[in-house]
Amino acid sequence: MVDIAFGPQGDKGPGPTNGRDAYLDLVRRRRMYGGILLVLFVALMASGFRLAESRNAGGFIDGLPQVFAFPSEVISEAWAKRAEVPGLIWAHVPSLIETINIAAVSTLAGGLAAMVLALLSTRGLSRWPRFTGVFRRMMDAFRAVPEIVIALVLIYLLGGGPVPAVIAIALHTSGALGKLFSEVAENADLKPVEGLTSVGATWGQKMWLGVIPQAAPNWLSYALLRFEINVRASAILGFVGEGGIGHDLKLAMQWGQGRYDEVVAIFLLLFLTIVAIDRLSDRAREKLVRGR
Prior knowledge:
The chain is mainly alpha-helical. It contains twelve helices and two strands; from the N terminus they run ββαααααααααααα. It has helices at about 15-55, 60-65, 70-80, 85-90, 95-120, 130-145, 145-160, 160-185, 190-200, 205-235, 245-255, 260-290, and strands at about 5, 10-15.
C-alpha cells in the first residue's frame, strides 16, 4: 500500500514516505556511481603502474630506498661548503635579474595582447561579433601549447637566448590571461557603454572609457598572478638554452659532484625570490580588488 498525503486544498500527492524513499534512492545511486568511478580509477592506476614497471630499466619498488640518495648527497656537500653559499648566491643575482626581466617583458606583452583578444572575444563588446569564435579559438590555441614546446621551435628559428623565451611565454600568457580577462569583461556594466554609444563614441573609446575602468582592478590582479607563474616558467626554459638562472642551474647540475653547493645556492635564490614576489603580489592584488 502506498501512503497518500492530502494537501491543504485536498489534493492528493506523494506523502513523506515516498519523498524519503526517493531521497534514499538518489543517495544509493550516487554511491553506486562513486564506487564505479573509484574502481575504474584504481584499475587505471594499477594498469599504468604495471606498464611503467615493465618498461622501466629498473624496478620501481627496488629503487624506492634510493629516492633520497641524490638529495642527501647534494645537501651534504652544500653543508660542507656552506661558507661559500652566500657568495654563490650573490654571483647568480645577474642571472636572476635576467630571468625576472624575461618574465616581466613577456607578462607585459602577453597581458596587452590578452586585453585586445578578451575585448574582441566577449559577447556584446566585440568589434566584429561574427569573429568572436575565431578570437576565442586563437586564445585556446595559445593556451593549449606549453611554453617549452614553443621555445624549442623558436630556438631552431632564432637561436638561443632570451628572445625565444619572451615570445613563448608571451604567447601562452596571452591565451591564459585572455580567457580570464574575457570572463571579467562579460560581467562589466554595459550602461556606460550604452551612454557612450548614444553620443557617437567609437568602439575604442567605448572600451577605453566604459569597460576597461571597470575591469582594470581584476585584470591587474590576474596579471600579477601570471607574473609569478612566468618567473617560474622563465627559470624552467633556461634548461633548454634560453638563458637566465635556469641555464646556470642546468650547467651546475651537469657538472655533478663538486658543484652541488652552487645548485643549492641557485635553489635558495629562486625560492627566496618567488616567496618575495608572491608576498608582494598578494598585497598588491588585495589593494586592487578590495581597496585596502
